[in-house]
Amino acid sequence: MTDAVAAIPEEAAPVPLLEPKEGIPPVVVDEQALADTVAAFAAGTGPVAVDAERASGYRYGQRAYLIQLRRAGAGSALIDPIACPDLSALGAALADAEWVVHAATQDLPCLAEVGMRPQRLFDTELAGRIAGFARVGLGAMTESVLGLSLAKEHSAVDWSTRPLPEPWLRYAALDVEVLVELRDALEQELDAQGKLAWALEEFAAIAAAPPRPAQRTDPWRRTSQLHKIRRRRQLAVVRELWLARDKMAQERDVSPGRVLSDAAIVNAALAMPLNAAALQAVQGFGPRVHRRQLDQWLAAVQRGREVPENQLPASAAPHDGPPPPRAWAEKDPVAAARLSGARSAVTELAERHHLPAENLITPDHVRRVSWEPPADADAEGIAAALRRLGARQWQVDLVAPALEAAFAAAAATAAQG
Asked: Helix (H, G, I), strand (E, B), or coil: what is residue 121?
C-alpha cells in the first residue's frame, strides 16, 4: 500500500459502527413512501451507495428482499422490493449518479429485476482487489481503510422474513453508511498506485455487461461431488434427480439444497436403488423423507435408468474451448509449454503490480490464446486476440508483451528439441 490511504495503525483497535447516523429509517413498503424516497434521492448529490440483501440458502433464485441506499442530501433508505416490486422510477432518478456497490456482480442482477441498473459505478470490492488488499470483504475493507468495524452477524440470515427484525435493519442500514467514504479513500489509493484508470475501465465493463449472465449449459453438472460418478448411466440419474429437485424447489420457493442435498443425489446415482426401501437406505433419504417425495425421487432414478443409450449425457461437460490443461502435454507439448510459460509470466506480472492474477487477466483468456495463438504471435497479434476474448485495454497493455516473450521462449525450446 502507499501512504495515500492513511490506514489505521495495526495496534489501534477499529471503532465499532453501531448505529446509523440518522437512526434506522422506516422500511419503504407503499407507493407514497416510495415516491417520497424517489424525490429525495433525485434531489440528493454525489454518488449513491447501493446494497441488496438476498435469501441465499433459503429461497429459490437470487431475488432481492431488501434494498439499501444512501446519498448526500437524502440520507439512507431501506426499501422492501417485495412490497414495491417496480423500482424503475428510482432507477431513473439515479440514472446520472455513480453507484457505489460492494461486489457489484452479486447485486446487479437482482437490482435489474426490479428496474434498477447503473450507468456508472464504483465497486469497492474490486477496487480493493486491484489495489492489492489481502482481504476485500466489506467488513475487512472498512476496518483496514477507515478504521471502523461493521458487525456482520446478520449477513447470512433469511432476508425473506417478514417483518424484518430491528437488529437486521440496523445491520442493513450500516452496510451503506460509510460506503461512499470507503469509495473516496479507495479512489485516492488507486490513484496513488497508478491504477485508477485500470479500475475505472473494469467498472465501466461491469456497468455495460448484461444484467444476468447467460444460462449455463447443463447446470446439473455443478452438483458437488460429481467427480465420484464414473458411468454415463449414473450421470443420467444425477441429471434427473437434479431436474426434479430444481422443479420442486422452484414451486416451493425454497433453496434446492433444502429440498435435497447434492450428496444425496450423488449417493442415489451411485446406488441406483430399484425400490423405495432401497432408496430410503441411501444416505440422505432417511425415514424423515415423506413417502410421496420418496416416490418422486424414485421416479427420477427410474427415468435415468430408462434414458436411451444414444441420449445419455457425455462423460464430460461440453465446451467450446481448449481441452483441460492436464491433457495438453500429450495432445500438444508446444502448447503445454506456452501455457506453462504464460502462467509464470502472468503470476510474476501480478506480483509485481500487487494484484491477484485473475484480476490481471482472466485465466481462460490465457488458456485459449496459449492453445491457439495468433498466426503472428507478437505482442500486437496477441493483443488483438485478447481483445476479441473480452480483455480490457489496460490488461492487454500489460499482458500481451509478457505472453509474447513466453511464447517465443516455448518456440525456441521446441526448435532446440
From this structure: strand
pLDDT, tens only, 32-87: 999 999 999 999 999 999 999 999 999 999 999 999 999 999 999 999 999 999 99
Residue the block writes with cell 480493493: 128
CATH 3.30.1330.10 fits 219-311, yes or no: no
CB-CB contact of 365 with 342 (8 Å): no
Distance of alpha carbon 162 from alpha carbon 53, whole angstroms: 13
> Domain 325-416: what homologous superfamily?
HRDC domain (1.10.150.80)
* Cell (9 digits) for 23: 437512526
Measured between alpha carbons, how far is 164 from 284 in angstroms, rounded to an integer?
A: 32
Q: Which residues contact 171 (CB under 8 A, 6 or more apart)?
A: 151, 152, 153, 154, 155
How far is the C-alpha of 31 from the C-alpha of 328, rounded, in Å?
Answer: 60
CA distance 66 to 81: 6
Q: What is the largest CA-CA distance in the chain?
A: 77
